[in-house]
Known about the structure:
Layout: E1 16-20, E2 26-31, H1 32-42, E3 45-50, E4 57-61, H2 63-80, E5 86-91, H3 97-112, E6 116-122, H4 131-145, E7 149-158, E8 161-168
Parallel strand pairs: 1-4, 5-6
Antiparallel strand pairs: 1-2, 3-4, 6-8, 7-8
Amino acid sequence: xxxxxxxxxxxxxxxxxxxxxxxxxxxxxxxxxxxxxxxxxxxxxxxxxxxxxxxxxxxxxxxxxxxxxxxxxxxxxxxxxxxxxxxxxxxxxxxxxxxxxxxxxxxxxxxxxxxxxxxxxxxxxxxxxxxxxxxxxxxxxxxxxxxxxxxxxxxxxxxxxxxxxxxxxxxx
Length: 172
């Protein structure tokens, strides 16, 4: 709600509102003039919390404090979100088995850290005529990794590159 400003006090255009007091109790449908008077007597603001309802729902609250609480909730929600990065590992179709195992170990580390991994095989010159070798390399990586991941995008050609995207399995 922080991106969309709520209407307060005299900004509310409706003639009647459904009023909720500061304790959260419903006072029913009230004329706007009476609601504004009640807000002034209590030293609070009349805030339109549900403008789309018929009639709009208004609450008697301290608007400054309400805005502060909403911002605090948003910051907490943002903290709990996990940023996933897309890491990329590049190789060639004529990769040696040891190098393949070494790079697969790096892929596994990235996946364990919670990142997505794009594994790319780069074809040069005549290698483009034998893209099945690159596909075999990618399938060998899937085989070496085991079960701790999901193939988000299967191996596919993009120009001179064949790539696939792997992501860690959700912990749910």
